[in-house]
């Protein structure tokens, strides 16, 4: 028999997780939100509309309490659950934040001594319940908490279609920084490139369109070949004059972009050196060139 689930916070992630676990045969005994109408709609999406409500007490019968509220709500929710779970035998209380450790859920209170706490973080982005439902299968999921809880975390991850892996609590913040770099900074990079590109085009609205194929190929090559082999362009070729031209033009026309370009150029130079595809003397010349513009920016 699969464990009884209460889901608190049926938002983007909660709807996707709830629907997948419901489909996997977990009995959902409560879906708790703040607003009755929104909670009812979310519960319909999950496939358990009769379980919708706004009263946390509905969670007291659950064996697994899934806390899918926003990150800032996790600690207050843990406090609010103290009375609710007081008579629940060994509840496992789970959150899905990439940022926080599982321990954020457990208040420093003897009434929480019988709880188990765990975090499951799917490395995926959820713009809506429906999109999350489709995107989760095939993703990876970090399981963090007591070692003895890993089999349960792994099982739930697999039920969501995700490949589980273990994450140490002390590594959680750096893990999350890495995840944000991969999912957010790529977006920022594309924004920087497309706004600069727009300044050069007769039709600025074409900037994203013309960059899309090269951007997609660069990401695909990076994933398929690895960064060292995927790297192309003037830095790894050691074309110093080309880089000087970029820097001079940016300094003249878009000085506000110079620090961003210089930082990434230096990181790219180091990657080229690591890949042993940039001759050492060229690497030094390039460093001197970048340094000379860094002092201007
Ligand atoms: N979205 C992502 O891409 C993603 C990816 C990985 C992990 N996560 C994690 O998943 C968690 C949820 O994120 P989300 O993007 O799904 O957030 P969300 O769409 O804003 O959903 C949060 C839900 O929690 C409800 N809620 C907030 N406080 C509550 C409370 N005290 N009691 C009951 N319900 C409450 C909200 O209700 P209202 O409708 O009233 O606001 C909403 O339904 C976060 O920990 C986040 O870090 C998200």
Automatic annotation (TrEMBL):
It holds the Pfam family DUF2520. Coiled coil: none annotated. Residues 4-108 form the Putative oxidoreductase/dehydrogenase Rossmann-like domain. Residues 140-268 form the DUF2520 domain. InterPro entries: 6-PGluconate_DH-like_C_sf (IPR008927), DUF2520 (IPR018931), NAD(P)-bd_dom_sf (IPR036291), OxRdtase/DH_put_Rossmann_dom (IPR019665), TM1727-like_C_sf (IPR037108). Transmembrane segments: none annotated. This is NADP oxidoreductase, coenzyme F420-dependent. It comes from Desulfuromonas acetoxidans (strain DSM 684 / 11070).
